[in-house]
Structure formats: structure tokens, C-alpha cells
Amino acid sequence: MKAIDPDVIIVRELLGAGDEFVSGSDLAQALGISRVAVWQHMEKLRERGFTFEAIRSRGYRITARPTALHALMIRARLPQKARCRIITLDTVDSTNDEAMRQASKGTEMPLVVIAREQTKGRGRLGRDWLSEPNGNLYLSFVFQPQVAPEKLPTITPWVGVNLCSFLADYAGIAPEVKWPNDVLIDGLKLGGILTEARLDADRIRDLVIGCGLNLTPPEKGWRGELKGKAVALNELTTKPIDINHFAAALVNRLLRACQDFQRGTFTDRLAELWHRYDTLRGREITLLFGRETITGIAHGIDHDGCLLLEMGDGPLKRFRAGEVTLAKR
Length: 329
Ligand code: BTN
Hints:
This protein is α+β, with helices and mostly antiparallel strands and 329 residues long. The protein has helices spanning 6-17, 24-31, 35-47, 71-77, 95-104, 155-171, 243-263, 267-277, and strands at residues 51-55, 59-64, 85-92, 111-118, 137-143, 176-178, 182-185, 188-199, 204-213, 284-289, 292-301, 307-310, 317-319, 323-326. A hairpin with a 5-residue loop joins strand 11 (292-301) and strand 12. It is elongated and about 80 Å long. Biotin binds next to helix 5, strand 5, strand 8 and strand 9. Biotin binds at residues 94-96, 118, 121-124, 127, 129, 138-140, 181-182, 192-194, 210-212.
């Protein structure tokens, strides 16, 4: 991985200082460059959407920073040891597709692709994912875990519980996960995960985890099949959401989740967190599985990420895939 970009270090220092000034010589020392070179970086940063106050005897402080999606703002908010590439785009067909294209051309990984808008956002089962440029989060994470393909079905539930725990910490809300890939709040869809992979015979080559989170409702309100079924984070909290701050915190969480997946050190934690956030547990559900419709009581997931259903007196049955519907509580 390349050495850290000096601009990232400067922005990190200045953001960390809040309203305080940071002296040019402190920045120069942190970067191992001259004060003139620091000044040159500041001029470059001005061109990238930052505004600074500079006072000769005191140094620099940020007076305005980009509020739209900005890779530098995200990187500067990440802890120094969090190493991953970040690509931010104004518009893209699908961040999952872009992540896969980048992987194919050998871009260094782990890599995060985030877009302000998707023109062909995709959901599970070939559905569209509404991806207006209104401040929602469309993010794909791609990496190459040295993990056997059998482990693949556990990644979506693992990311799902990590999203729930992240949202609970970040926004003080009580999200739930609905097998296999939905994040809900009070039964309304707040987000979803679309996992795609390229496999070799005995290992996962490229693994793309796409996360869509509704942060703002659509400009014309929830309509059509989303009406009464979806919700956005800013409808649930009064705290304004800074997209770069939010994205950085989420990337940091996902980076750790993916490392745990890679090391295989997540199974017990997945069981514990699934139990905490599972919206289906103990409820009667209907599972559409191929052409079959199956009814049973949900009992969480097993170590392989399969849904466990109680159907009559026999042992619990496991299902690897399917579409769940449930009666309203
Ligand atoms: C679902 O609930 O069906 C999954 C939705 C996943 C949407 C995200 S948005 C970022 C990434 N890019 C896509 O095209 N899809 C995923």
C-alpha cells in the first residue's frame, strides 16, 4: 500500500484540532517537509473544496470543508492504521460493478467504491435499488479473502449484524436484521446488502460487498412498492448526517468485519449478534424457496449462515437461500 498522502495527514490534523489553529511548523514536522511545502499543500487543498484561515503567528484552521462525498474527507476521518483505497464517484452504474471492474484491472485492495448516485443500482434477486443523488449511501467493498468458498454464505449475515451494531452506535436507533440481507427498523427497510463474488475452484478470488443505506427519503417521497415499506435514517434522528463522517465510520467498521471474516474469527460473535438483532426469531414466516412455499417458525441461523426453521415435530430444517415474508406483528 502507498505511503499516506500528505493531504490526508494535513486534513486529519486540522479536523482533529476543531476550531483551534495548527501551526505550519507542526504540520511540516508531522510530514517531514518544509513550511513552504505545507503552504503549497494548503493551496492544493483550497482547490479541492477546503477553506482555511491562515494567521502567520498561529498557523491554519479549517473554516469550510466539503459537505458532499469526498474521498479525502473520508480518508482523513479513518484511523491512521486503517489501510484501504477509497474511490468516490459522482455517478456510476453500480458501485458493485465498479468494484468488480477495479478488481479485474488489478487495483490494490481492499478497496471501497462509494457513489453519490447509481444509474443501475441493483438489489437482491435482480431487483432495482433506488439510487437517487440525494445523500444516500451506495458503497461497495472489495477484497480478496483467502477463505474457502463454503464460507461465503456467512459474509452477508456477518455484514448485516455489523451494519446493525454500527447504526445502533452511530445513530442511537434499534435496527434489526432480516435474513439474509435486510436491515430494518420497526419492520421498515433501512438498507440492504448485495454480496457478489468471483470464485476459483478452491478459494474466493474477489469478494464484493455492496451496502445501500437510506439516509434521506426520495425527493418525491416513498412511492410505489417502497411506500410504507422503507425508511431513511434522517427520518429517525434529528442529528444531521455528515455523509463523509458517516461513510468513514462505516468503512472502518466494515474493514474490521472483513478482517474478522478473513481470519475466521467471527463465528461466535455472529451467533451472538444475530441473536441480538434477528427480527425473525420465534416468528412464523413463509419462505419462498424456488417454487416451494414453506411455512415454519424461525430459529435464527446456523454456523453456515443458513436459516433454521421449525416445521412440525422433526429437527430444525436449514435453508441456504430464499425469500422470507412474515405476518405483521
Ligand atoms: C437488497 O436489499 O436487495 C440489496 C441492496 C444493495 C444495494 C447496494 S447499493 C451499493 C451496491 N451497489 C449496487 O448496485 N447494489 C448495492
